[in-house]
Amino acid sequence: MKKIFTRPESLKETPFRFCPGCGHSIVHRMIAEVIDELGIRERVIGIAPVGCAVFAYDYFNFDVIECAHGRPPAVATALKRVHPDAIVFSYQGDGDLAAIGTAEIIHCANRGDNLSIFFINNATYGMTGGQMAPTTILKQQTTTSPKGKSSKNEGFPLKVSELIATIDGAVFVARTSLNDIKNVLATRMLVKRVFENQIEKRGFSFLEILSPCPTDWHYTPTDSMKWIKNEMMTVYKNGIIKDLYR
């Protein structure tokens, strides 16, 4: 019998501990599949954040470094300079990258470091109880904005990809989502593109992925996908925002 589906070599045989309907498991598998497809597993070093993806080293079957909250870009820069032939990527949530780590990601992009950055945006602090994040959209209810986020009190949703795209050192910036099969397939293609850019030494590549958080949104997994399409994607538009090589 022909085997058409199997566990990627770059994923350990460890069950994911993510909540039902969470997007992290989908992206983890995509990254593992692409690394296997490109034949770079022995060269890869991943950077795990503080947040829901904190246990990435339990799942990925290659070297992974855990670092302080918001600091993955700084650690990634150091690793790349010490090991220039390594394929280094950071995997960060919106609380990690867009809040405590804002300075690190901006300066990393400004340096034009040849890195691959994956930014998982679920518009909330997923790990610590669903508090409001910089990426929380207006009127969205969270544990710290029970009446909905207000531009007057808390400011506007931070469009990180558009911000990064203005920086000269960034060569590729895109946003995608996990809300349906079409966009999942598009996300996988973009994950591959971000790694290929680093392999070809093109420079700093940034991929934002809109991802569901059913637990903190208080939706079913199905309704979470609808919320991404009907609410998040009206604020955060999918597409390639900057591409200096095509």
Task: State which percent range the strand residues make up.
Answer: 15-25%
Strand order of the largest sheet: 2-1-3-4-6-5-7
Q: Which structural class should the secondary elements be placed in?
A: alpha/beta
Distance between the termini: 41 Å
What is the approximate shape? globular
What is the helix/strand order?
A: HEHEHEHHEHEHEHHE
Number of helices: 9
Cα Rg? 17 Å
**Into which percent range does the helicity of residues fall?**
25-40%
For the biggest sheet, the summary is: 7 strands, mixed
What's the pLDDT, averaged over the residues? 95
How many extended strands? 7
Q: Which regions are unreliable across 5 or more consecutive residues at pLDDT < 50?
A: none
3D architecture notes:
The chain is 37% helix and 17% strand. The longest helix is centred in the last third of the chain and has 19 residues. It is of the alpha/beta class and 246 residues long. A seven-stranded mixed sheet has the order 2-1-3-4-6-5-7, sandwiched between helices. The model has no long low-confidence stretch (mean pLDDT 95). Strand 1, helix 2 and strand 2 form a beta-alpha-beta unit. It is built from nine helices and seven strands; from the N terminus they run αβαβαβααβαβαβααβ. Helix 1 crosses helix 7 and helix 4 crosses helix 5. The relative contact order is 0.15.
